[in-house]
Design brief:
The protein is an alpha/beta fold. It contains 14 helices and 16 strands. A hairpin with a 3-residue loop joins strand 15 and strand 16. The two termini are 41 Å apart. The chain binds manganese (II) ion.
Length: 390
């Protein structure tokens, strides 16, 4: 398994696309900075091939949305920075109808439909947690499509800024070629993108806010535009407004938790933010839980931390979900993390995955995870998780 094999597979996928010669395509992408960079890479790369693509941002792979998307015939669909973990479900809904290409770095499940093709580099021996991001995968595919796309290499670096270990493995290779091509210049700890007049780390931070906080008001599309054209004054202003709104909601929730304290079971401390983040993307609850996990005056060091938030029914560019959902976000206080490493406690994602089986979709890692579940299953999730921990 190697990078060479990735390229061979990418070329097979490209041949399939050329055979279908679509004039339009759909790019389904995630809402964080990596998801926005991934969408920007593919939007530009497809435009260069004369394919007019529409972008569609999803916070989560909602089954009813995916079922609807794949019910139509003969479309070309890309999933970027999202989709690999649900390639089995996507296959079932697709039923051989649409050429579907996944470019992602989350843990892959094998697709069951030959028209669903997953180019996740985890399938070629690399690690999605450390070696590459969704945007890296998109960039490498784009470069296989057309060498000209080397000018998009900076977006692989912006998207990969979500990886705490820095640019390693494939990403280190992308850094080298981006510098060599003059697409980025080293600037202190980060890189300058001369074309946009912005630094990699600051573009990353702006995109995190636009996509997550601005999800319900066109933030993702503004972010994709910023990826390709830079941040203008209007976008800068929008980011400031979104940041302020989130800070205010965080302040109110923190105040409430100091007054009311968190609720507790034997192994879990939890709260329900309900509609306190209305209008903002649901990713904000995870960011708040991360912050909360360090507030030692408020939380216990030896219990999983869990926060619920209501999920709005409206999906931008799609319509209204039939079901009502809540999101549960889990964080592991630092003193417990070692016990997870030693296998004495289950990791956050394993716990949520088991506790929401049949009524939720869980994603994430060992110390941080989230699940979207039916709104009436909150107590069942807590009861099941508690039972698993006993
Ligand atoms: Mn990502």
């Amino acid at each position: 398994m190697s990078f060479k094999e990735f390229n061979q597979h990418a070329n097979k996928v490209i041949a399939l696309i050329e055979k279908e010669a679509p004039s339009e395509a759909i790019i389904v992408h995630h809402d964080d900075a990596d998801g926005l960079c991934s969408a920007a890479v593919m939007l530009k790369a497809l435009e260069r091939e004369g394919i007019n693509a529409k972008t569609f941002c999803l916070e989560k792979v909602y089954m009813e949305v995916i079922a609807d998307l794949h019910s139509k015939e003969s479309q070309t669909i890309f999933y970027v920075d999202i989709g690999s973990s649900h390639a089995d479900a996507i296959s079932e809904f697709n039923k051989g109808r649409n050429l579907t290409v996944i470019l992602d770095h989350h843990d892959p499940k094998p697709p069951k439909d030959p028209k669903v093709l997953d180019l996740n580099l985890e399938n070629f021996g690399f690690k999605g947690e450390t070696d590459f991001s969704g945007a890296t995968c998109c960039y490498l595919f784009a470069k296989a499509l057309n060498e000209e796309n080397i000018d998009l290499s900076y977006l692989a670096l912006v998207g990969s800024s979500e990886i705490p270990e820095g640019f390693k493995s494939i990403n280190a290779m992308v850094v080298e070629e981006a510098i060599k091509a003059g697409v980025v210049h080293k600037k202190g700890k980060t890189f300058e993108i001369p074309k946009l007049g912005v630094k990699v780390d600051s573009l990353f931070s702006s995109l995190q806010i636009l996509g997550a906080v601005g999800y319900y008001e066109g933030g993702p599309d503004l972010g994709i535009k910023a990826c390709l054209e830079g941040i203008d004054a209007a976008v800068d202003e929008k980011i400031a407004v979104l940041e302020e709104r989130r800070k205010e909601a965080n302040r109110r929730l923190l105040g409430r938790l100091y007054r009311e304290r968190l609720k507790e079971t034997a192994h879990i401390q939890w709260f329900d933010a309900e509609d306190m983040y209305a209008g903002m993307g649901t990713k904000v609850i995870g960011q708040f839980c991360s912050f909360l996990s360090y507030q030692t005056r408020l939380i216990k060091p030896d219990k999983y931390l869990l926060g619920f938030v209501n999920v709005p029914q409206e999906i931008p560019k799609w319509g209204k979900l039939k079901e009502t959902y809540v999101k549960a976000s889990v964080r592991v206080p630092r003193p417990m993390q070692k016990m997870i490493d030693n296998g004495k406690l289950p990791g956050a994602v394993n716990l949520l995955d088991k506790a929401t089986k049949e009524f939720g979709i869980a994603d994430g890692h060992q110390y941080a995870a989230n699940a979207v579940l039916h709104a009436n299953k909150k107590m069942e999730l807590l009861n099941r998780a508690e039972k698993l921990l006993q």
